[in-house]
Design goal:
Length: 74
């Protein structure tokens, strides 16, 4: 799981933010496929990967830290 945080002034409900998020996930998927053999030279990639992304608003940094700590344990 990859987490990114944005400054609180950024409006994540805009189409621009959605486009940026979509591009990030697309790029991540491309790099994942391109680098597969570097990390798993013997193992064949059997199915194309896909990744999901979503934007979530958290009220403050403490909530983000608590959430990330919880996900780390999960």
């Amino acid at each position: 799981m990859i987490k990114c945080s944005w400054h609180h002034d950024i409006d994540i409900s805009t189409n621009n933010f959605s486009k940026i998020l979509s591009l990030c996930v697309s790029y991540f998927t491309s790099v994942y496929v391109m680098k597969w053999k570097d990390f798993f030279p013997i193992k064949e990639l059997k199915e194309p990967p896909y990744f999901d992304a979503r934007a979530v608003c958290y009220p403050n940094l403490k909530t983000i830290r608590d959430y990330l700590a919880w996900r780390q344990v999960d």
